[in-house]
Amino acid sequence: MAEMSMNKAIHAAFRRDLGRFIDALGRFPAGNRQRAEQLATAWANFDDQLTRHHEGEHDIAWPALEKVGVSHDLLKQMDAEHDTMAAALAATRTAMATLHRSASAEDAAAALTAMQELQRVTIQHLEHEEAEIEPVYLAKKDTPEMKAMGREFAKVGPVQGGTFFAWALDGAAPDESAAITGTVPKPVLTVITGVFGRSYRKSVAPVWRS
What we know:
By secondary structure, this protein is mainly alpha-helical. The chain has one domain (about 5-155). About 80% of the residues lie in helices and about 0% in strands. The protein has nine helices and no strands. Helix 6 (about 160-170) crosses helix 8 (about 185-195). The radius of gyration is 18 Å and the shape is globular. The mean pLDDT is about 95.
């Protein structure tokens, strides 16, 4: 099993959700307000996870990566890609809110179009970031800078952390799960997902089983 960073495992979760949304919107049953409500719930989680991830990269990951040799110009390019993603995220947020209100076939089609564009720009960025920065995460994982970065990312409340890990592990492939469970002590992960990931398991995960 090839080694991957936790960052790449998180990227995989974004890819999974984008694919799930596109599949669900393509098969949206017109007029089904219950399904519109379910997708709105899942979207709220995705929107929050993607926003927090890229804000965290700018505030925490980029300074650490620059300290271990990643060029400032490359990180500026990554931030520019984040801006493109943020615009697509905002457009999709609006489209999903409209679908939530109407549950119409027309608004489902508009939300699908917005989601497809969000998927396009997001995957383009993730592939670029992985090509340039994944090798650095793996090569420098034991440096003081990367360990300090990990501690900063870990400074979240238990509810946010439990939701994050429950989401990141939902549908993860074995190598993706290993990248996450290898970073967080198993007893800690078991408790935080078991107790504080309950909301995700109850309200979001079932959306993708429907």
